[in-house]
Amino acid sequence: MELTPLYAKSVTCGLCKHKFTSTKIRGRFVRVKEYSTDLMPVYEDSSINPNLYHVHVCTECGYSFTDDFALYFPPGGKEEIQDKISKHWQHLDFSGERTPDDAIKAYKLAIYMATIKREKSIILAGLYLRLSWLYRNRDHEQEERFQRLAVKAYKDAYSKEDYAGTQITTERVLYLIAELSLRLGEDEDATRHFSKIIEKQHNSNDPKMVHMAKERWQTYREERKVL
Length: 227
Prior knowledge:
227 residues; 7 helices; two-stranded antiparallel sheet; mainly alpha
């Protein structure tokens, strides 16, 4: 039997405990051509894009989440989601092949759930960033909107260090604040955060991100001279 890029994964809803099928992409089919400066992977085949399938959407109640969401719901959180989403849910099925529009809807649902659940800022920042990638080359205004939200959430995550214990490093958080600020024309913010990474170069746990920051900063300065 020939393997296909998409496969069905059984997932249990964190809200209603219903078991449903969520679609994922087999790693062997994923081919990254390059990375944008904001770390967005550019795939050789745009239809084989794991970012489209990052969010699970429960067919039964509409609860939308990623593997990074906490199992915990704050007091009243479940009831609020049930009242605002589940009561009106039409048993929509997000399994199978997703279009970018499908993925955008799934991300917006997950962001709504994460806000109600008071997920960590680093979780929200990642959702905003991935959503901004989906808008790239489609809707510049929406791309910028979610970049701004991502910067705000990454700054909040940095101040609280709520990414401690994850694979996300301080350097990566600082880099994304700097890079997104640069894209949004917030040059002073970008300068300040690039400097913070470069200052850490001799005692960094993420030398690759320090190297990227130095290269990106150098390119920006050279581009500014030309202008």
